[in-house]
Amino acid sequence: MTDEKIGGLTMNQDRKRILEMVQEGKLSAQEAIILLDALEDGGGDAADAKPASLEKQSTDTASKAESKAESTTGSTGDTSWQQSKSKESDSGDDTFYTQIEQAGERIFDFVNTALRKIKDLDWQITQSVEVPHVFQQADEQIERIDIDIANGPVRVIAWDQQEVRVECQAKVYRVEDRDEGRSYFLDNTVFSQDNGLLCFATKSKWMRVETTVYIPRKIYKKITVRIFSGEMTGELLESEHLIVKTTNGKVDLTGISGKKLDVETMNGQIKVIDLNTDQVEAETVNGAVDVTGFSRKADLKSFNGNITCTLAHSGTEMVEAKAVTGNIYVNVPDSATIDGEVRSNLGSYTLDLEGINVLHEKKEVIQKQMKFKRSGSDDHTMYLEADTKTGSVFIRKANQKGE
User: Fold this and answer.
1) How far apart are CA 373 and CA 356, in angstroms?
2) How does pLDDT run across 194-208, given as a tens digit for each residue?
3) pLDDT tens, position by position, 240-251
4) Backbone angles phi, psi at 69, to 5 degrees
5) Once rounded to an integer, what is the mean pLDDT over residues 121-137?
6) Would you give the DSSP letter of residue 403?
7) What is the dihedral of CA 166, 169, 171, 177, to 10 degrees?
8) Hey, how many other C-beta atoms are within 10 angstroms of the C-beta on 282?
9) Are residues 227 and 146 in contact, defined by beta-carbon separation less than 8 angstroms?
10) Residues near 108 by Cβ (< 8 Å), separated by ≥ 6?
11) Where are the domains of the chain?
């Protein structure tokens, strides 16, 4: 066998040995590349070189790699365990990066889909038609009224005519022309009268309906108004029980009379003027509450907003006002006889009334409290409780309204 063949055979054996050492975990890929480059650069000289020299170089490199691995892990596990852990680590890294890549692709697709939907939504909102419509119904012993609006403001007004009239100004989205818009409006609107109950409802949030409801002036058993997004205005309404609920929108009522008034909104102020009821309950999460008039019992709550209760004349039996971040103003008649308690955690209280008799008072850093009585010219006693967490409490005469 010639020297050239012997040299080629030796180089092939060396390459094979290097690859075997990589597979066994004795050499890293970078170290193997360095050895292979050195072997190639040696060329014919590698044939004359002793195979033991390459073996020694490979062994030295492997020893350094093993020593480095042992110093890192701090253990002396056998070679097969290191090889298994190395393969598992490589496999785990591949899986991890594959998952990252797949997650990135999914996120990218999600963002693109969301952007397309937003563009479609913008087009659908800007693409709309106006649809005016009027519903009319003769007053056939209507005793109860139920109004349910998905999107849009509502006005309910008592008038002297003997019929119910509902005037609608609708803006219908996602339609091409007025005929399609009118059909969509009528398909998603209910106007009916049955067994003394008058119902009017818009069921779709893809149309905004400005609604004005005229009802005959008389005393109703129950009036209910529910609005998802929109404000409610009521004028000169007489009902044994009036219920107003909105999710997003203020409530403005004037000239309300009856046995009970319930007002509730998530986002919006509540304002009631010229009230005359036996009981009123008003609650909002974000907004002020302002009630002026007369009610035997008043229960007012606001999470984020001031509460103002102005009692026009004597006769109120109980006032309960609770706030979290707002002030409380209770304006009482000069003749009021009061048995009251005021509390504030971080605020203060002011009782601007004559004839106050303090029963108990506590003034701590995080708790201020006073129980008091006041003797007025009224024979009956008003029970008053005002409680706020971070605001202040003001009890004044009715002509000294708090700002």
Assistant:
1) 6
2) 899 999 999 888 899
3) 999 999 999 999
4) -65, -40
5) 76
6) -
7) 100
8) 27
9) no
10) none
11) 3-76, 250-403
